[in-house]
Amino acid sequence: MDKVNSHIIAVYPGSFDPVTLGHIDIIKRASKLFDKVIVAVAASLHKKTLFSLEERIEFIRESVRDFPNVEVKPLINKLLVDFCKEHKANAIVRGLRAVSDFEYEFKMAWMNRRLYPDVEILFLIPSEEYAYLASSLVKEIASLGGDVSSLVPKPVADRLQEMREKIKKEGTGEEFEQSI
After folding, report:
1. Is 85 a catalytic residue?
2. Marked catalytic residue, from 135, 139, 159, 164
3. CATH of 9-131 given 3.40.50.2300, 3.30.70.920, 3.40.309.10, 3.40.50.620
4. Is this structure's pTM higher than 0.85?
């Protein structure tokens, strides 16, 4: 491949349940490094999600609409490397928050490299203000009535608040709390 004239496409995969400002930070920074970034929103096969695949995609689309070289697509019933091949991606971007993320991400990187040797895996660390941030923490804080507006894009914060209000009005909140 001619590196000077090549079009570098990166895929940033994840479940994004929900997308956080840490995710948006990684997307923004990746968009400056690559010609095109595809955010691949995974349909979670092994865990129940709080938000549907369609909702998660829409939250991200709303949050990245100012990044012209970013696309958001579903990743359903296929390997990440097959998605990369299908979209002619040269790179996979992953975020690393802490050392605790490293072992899992390292194993996944090696397996993806084994399955698709032509793809490069790049790790980006988030800005310091988002180093602690995880979707699971956001869901836990929201389920207990905490304010997550400084942790997630506005559409996500609004939707979490709507869910919380509906649960307060209609029932015990078990549905919301059990989904995390």
Report:
1. no
2. 135
3. 3.40.50.620
4. yes
